[in-house]
Amino acid sequence: MGFNLMSVMSNDVVRVMLDRLNKLRMLDSMLDFARASTQLDILIALSDNKPVSLDELASRVGRGKRQVADAIRKMLSKGFVRYEERDGEMLIVIDENGLEYLKGVSDILSINIKDAKVVLDSKRVDVTENIGIYFYAYEALTILGVAQHPLSLNKLASIMNISPNRLESYLDLFISRDGVQNIFEKVYKISYRILSFRHVPRTSAYYKLSELGMKIFYKLPFYIKYKNSIKMRFLMRIMFTPHYRTAFDRFVKFYIFGTIVAFFMLLIPYGWIFAAVWLYFSILAFSILSMEF
């Protein structure tokens, strides 16, 4: 049996990426990267484990005092930070969960987290941006894996609630020139739009998973859950989206709208029939709503 260097390299990349993406999934359950960049900046600023005042912390992270205070309030409930009294003044210091979180960040980015404060202050590398790259790469990986076909950059960006230019810059980092370690593949398609009664050609970028990307997707805990959950697959199908969070959000909005309509239908003759059908649907809805993503 011959020695296949490419296969070894591919398996090595899969193993490294799976390790990082699984750690990313764990970290995302502790802190939502898409909405909590300020909290991550605060953790990095506190990485030297020295208590600081709210004013000094706001100055370090370059945010307003009110914004930092709001972030601290949320981080206290998660055990990321705690208050310590020094000379009659309440100071903020990183707590155990915060240290654990930073360790996970350092593993994903392969940096020494003790130097993260210097990195943040110097602005030579934006740690928050780098961890965000992995977060959006993971999201794109799951969306394209579920879709099983290329999606346009604009549609992918819309689903992930990020600007197309920013998403493109992130995903292109996972496309190597030699093509050996590509996780994504980028193709261009020509479409036509009517402008002033003329068909104007427009080139659009599309993304799909490479062979390596599909290998990683099939080994993700998300895929195992997706494969074994009829409810999850059904929900994505009826909500017309390959993204489970978007599907869930759409379902909740649809459910609320339907409940309001059912209530008003009770006020008209035979409207109870619709309300009864909606009640039956609601029983199924509660089953789906209780599903843990």
Description:
- The chain has helices at residues 5-30, 37-45, 54-61, 65-78, 96-109, 116-122, 127-147, 153-160, 164-171, 211-218, 221-228, 230-238, 244-265, 271-289, and strands at 81-86, 89-94, 151-152, 184-195, 198-209.
- With 293 residues, it is of the alpha+beta class.
- It folds into 3 domains: 31-122, Arc Repressor Mutant, subunit A (Orthogonal Bundle), CATH 1.10.10.10; 131-226, Arc Repressor Mutant, subunit A (Orthogonal Bundle), CATH 1.10.10; 229-289.
- A 3-stranded antiparallel beta sheet has the order 3-5-4. Strands 1-2 form a two-stranded antiparallel sheet.
- A hairpin with a 2-residue loop joins strand 1 and strand 2.
- Helix 1 packs antiparallel against helix 5 (96-109), helix 1 packs across helix 7 (127-147) and helix 3 crosses helix 4.
- The radius of gyration is 24 Å and the shape is globular.
- The two termini are 43 Å apart.
